[in-house]
From TrEMBL:
Its EC number is 2.7.1.187. GO terms for molecular function: kinase activity. The keyword Glycoprotein does not apply. It comes from Streptomyces achromogenes. Residues 68-304 form the Carbohydrate kinase PfkB domain. This is Sugar/nucleoside kinase (Ribokinase family). Keywords: Kinase, Transferase. PANTHER family: RIBOKINASE, SUGAR KINASE. SUPFAM superfamilies: Ribokinase-like (SSF53613).
Length: 319
């Protein structure tokens, strides 16, 4: 199994090359892939034999790990992304995205191909995602020496819930590095996401599928290691549990028309981690997250962009 690494992905690196990496603020684990974007007239989409898509159907790099890495890099954090990628056109799109934004990438060769999804996006910015789960193998594992070397060089690791990141959690805990994760639309019960929730110091989750978000947040903190738990609730803002205090963080008015909610949660997580790594209190971190998430909703699904550091800080100071 080969690991291709470096800022410009211009060679094949062995373990020794990875061990030479130093000075990473955040290692992003997993979540690299390509989405095919289809703008549809409404969601749910009524059955029809066919639809004419005048806006085009476009493939672009950017799944959850890519967007978190993009957000972190835009905020000036030294970011490194580790995941499996195929030797295919989709993998080339992911590599190009990282090179364009100066994000270091270590790509483990994946014979099954690069992860892919189809996103149906409605006029009001809502989306329905169809994930291709065939782009992986049950026995996939990150090379342990590569994982340990990158973790040792990092201040923090953000772990996507894509396979095989769950298998990396014990190694990361042993390495003693801080961990965050995003459970996305967890129902509060599925044991797969629960393993991530209980292993992380900072947990993000969407409130969408949670019957009682507050109770779930407290359960995560009581049973796991989390110092902060955030449940994002779209236009209703977010809920923050830090220590024993649970507070509501209001939503922020987007700086432009809402065109797509895809990536808003990833932007929130990146900005929250930016604040945390700069010693900001949890409430301030969540406010950073709300600002970045609102900005992400103004970025078309066919593009990849994140709120820059100077703009985030200016908006935060103006509130």
């Amino acid at each position: 199994m080969r690991a291709r690494t470096g800022r410009h992905m211009d060679g094949v690196a062995g373990v020794g090359d990875v061990e030479e990496v130093r000075g990473i603020d955040v290692l992003v684990l997993g979540g690299a892939g390509v989405d095919t974007i289809v703008y549809v007239p409404e969601l749910p989409l009524p059955y029809a034999d066919s639809y004419l898509i005048d806006s085009g159907i476009r493939a672009r790099a950017g799944q959850t790990g890519d967007f978190v890495a993009l957000g972190l890099a835009a905020l000036g954090l030294r970011t490194h992304h580790l995941d499996f990628l195929g030797d295919d056109p989709e993998g080339d799109l992911v590599r190009a995205l990282h090179e364009q934004h100066g994000i270091a990438l270590t790509a483990i060769e994946q014979p099954a191909g690069t992860k892919r999804a189809v996103n149906l996006v409605s006029p009001d910015g809502r989306r329905l995602s169809l994930y291709d789960t065939s782009r992986g193998r049950a026995g996939d594992r990150f090379p342990e020496d590569t994982l340990r070397g990158l973790a040792a060089a990092s201040r923090h690791v953000h772990v996507s819930i894509t396979q095989p990141c769950a298998e990396a959690l014990p190694v990361l805990r042993e390495a003693g590095v801080g961990i965050s994760t995003d459970l996305h639309n967890w129902d509060g019960e599925n044991p797969y996401q629960a393993a991530f929730a209980l292993a992380a110091d900072v947990v993000f989750v969407s409130a969408t599928a949670l019957p009682d978000p507050r109770a779930t947040m407290r359960r995560i903190a009581e049973r796991g290691r989390a110092e902060a738990v955030v449940a994002t609730a779209g236009a209703e803002g977010a809920y923050l549990l830090a220590g024993d205090e649970l507070t509501h963080v209001p939503a922020v008015a987007p700086p432009g028309p809402v065109v797509d909610s895809n990536g808003a949660g990833d932007a929130f997580a990146a900005a929250f981690l930016f604040g945390r790594l700069h010693g900001e209190p949890p409430r301030r971190c969540a406010e950073f997250g709300a600002l970045a998430g609102a900005y992400a909703c103004t970025v078309p699904a066919t593009e990849s962009a994140a709120l820059p550091r100077a703009e985030l800080l200016a908006r935060a100071d103006a509130r």
